[in-house]
Amino acid sequence: MGVNITVLICCFNGKRFLKRALESLSNQKVKLRDFEVLFIDDGSTDCSYEIAKNFEKKLSLRIYKNDINLGLPESCNKGIQLAKGDWIIRLDADDAFSPEMITSLSQYIDYEKTDFIYSNRRDIYLDLKKEVVRDLKDFNIFKITASGVCLRKKLLLEIGGYRNFFWEEYDLYIRYLEVSGKMPTHIPKTLYYYSIYEGSMTSNREKVDAGWRELVNECGIKKLRQYGDSDRLK
Known about the structure:
Layout: E1 5-11, H1 18-26, E2 36-41, H2 48-53, E3 61-65, H3 72-82, E4 87-90, E5 96-97, H4 101-106, E6 116-125, E7 130-134, E8 150-152, H5 153-158, H6 168-180, E9 185-196, H7 205-219, H8 221-225
């Protein structure tokens, strides 16, 4: 297959879960040379960098360390520029892939009728100790996470990558799909494991509310409704 897929991890102080994320990549049901892992340490002050270094020989892993914390959008854009794969999929440091993720993606990356590949997701509520599988067959960007979506590098570069929004993924997905003009492809498997817990970025209600206002001001409710439904758009 060759390296057609880059897994991008942008990490800031992710030591709590990072080992699990990286182990999920070393457990993929493909040869490790068939995909690359690009790790951007965004100025972490914990041992995230050292944890990643321990996986250098287990994975086709390239590690870059920002001297200062640049923030998620800028770190992601750095990763897009550095990626060797034609396709890029993000993995957050506190999440994990199913062992079948790369195998499943590989069945679609030569399919010219799509530029956007995503799957079902398992939400893991760590504080509540419960798990819920999300069937995402009916496309709605507001039900899709920032990670676990496979996108073409050339189109990401064409739209200028991420912008500095709280909901950087929604802003990017809308601009990306407008340029692509193709329907997203859904893989009917649960391939992404998403951690939900107190202290995560989306657990801060004030920041979440401000992020929605920012998105509505940028795009307008009418355009946002073209890409999905949310209680925030009522």
